[in-house]
Amino acid sequence: MSRPITAAIDLAALAHNLGVARAHAPHAKVFAVIKANAYGHGLLRAAAAMRDADGFAVVEFDAAMRLRDAGYRQRIVLLEGFFDAREAEAGAARKISGVMHTAEQFAWIAPLQAGARLDVLLKINSGMNRLGFTPDAVRGAYDRLQDLPGVGKITLMTHFADADGAGGVAAQMAVFERAVAGIAAPRSLANSAATLRYPQTHFDWVRPGIMLYGSSPFTERSATELGLQPVMTLTSEIIAVCDLKPGDTVGYGGTFRAERSMRIGVVACGYADGYPRHAPSGTPIRVNDVMTATVGRVSMDMLCADITHLPQAGIGSRVVLWGEGNPVDDVAAAAGTVSYELLCAMSARVPVIERQ
Ligand SMILES: *Cc1c(COP(=O)(O)O)cnc(C)c1O
């Protein structure tokens, strides 16, 4: 038998979660965000499961080309835009849209001929202070884009810094509205949090990412409460059992010390599989369909779970690291991070199986 770890990807759950996004924004089109290898789920796998999305959003030029090569005809947008003139030319030839976020990029699309009809998204920096034109530069950028012969449709775009938090979207919406006043063009503003919480941000195109993968963008509302289904379930098995006496420690650094007699299951999953090394003792883990907690430091290939109260558990017991029955959001919270990071980091050595 081979090492028992696997990541099961539930394709029906992906399609379901896309439906949840659509139900929240019934009048908008949806760019399914599948950057970073679809948040670790596999680019073409995720695209196939969400093949009726109105468009796809990626960051990597190569991913956009792979989607076109695979036959997807809908809009494909590069969220960081083109990185040089050659990409702009090659992208235009395949109808790949680019976000235009800085004046440097204009020179790269300026040589495109009138027939190119390159669709672009003009990005406005409404307060995130990462990519985009300052509000007072937007009108000028829009006019310049309109004057370029190779440019087709222009969509106005911004990105929220705190749609999932207490800050909300109002301040950024106000900046955006002032910046685009008088410009009649389609708009794309909402990430998952805004798609779920702020209908006034929906406009023409929403851009959900994390919710498609069955995670909640909010700390105070679970994915289940939002009607989302987990997509990736990372499972493994117990490969050894240790009996601890009071005072015994577990793992590197001896960071966990037993205060009483304990039984510990050694699980074939470690940080080389993408499990976060900084997950402390007490991180939720599911053994034989019962919730328990990790103990000791996560090592490269193994971690340990407390099975003292699970007398039936032993070698071969099924362990859910995250996914069905053990939400990735809870594991991420215990590890002091977000589900995005855990999903994206799921490593290439983990065999993936697809569930319909
Ligand atoms: C990643 C990304 C999204 C999706 O964000 P989620 O929080 O995963 O929904 C939307 N828009 C842009 C510009 C992004 O970079």
Explain what this protein looks like in three dimensions.
This protein is of the alpha/beta class. The protein contains 11 helices and 18 strands. Strands 8-7-6-5-4-3-2-9 form an 8-stranded parallel sheet. A hairpin with a 7-residue loop joins strand 15 and strand 16. Helix 10 crosses helix 11. The site of pyridoxal-5'-phosphate has 11 residues, from loops.
Bound molecules: pyridoxal-5'-phosphate
Our measurement of the CA-to-CA distance between the termini, rounded to an integer number of angstroms, reads 25 Å
Name the CATH homologous superfamily of the largest domain.
Alanine racemase
- Strand content is 15-25%
State the CATH topology of the largest domain: TIM Barrel
Total number of helical segments? Answer: 11
What oligomeric state do the depicted chains represent? single chain
Using only C-alpha atoms, the radius of gyration works out to 23 Å
Overall geometric form: elongated
| CATH class descriptor name of the largest domain | Alpha Beta
Total number of beta strands: 18
* Mean pLDDT value: 97
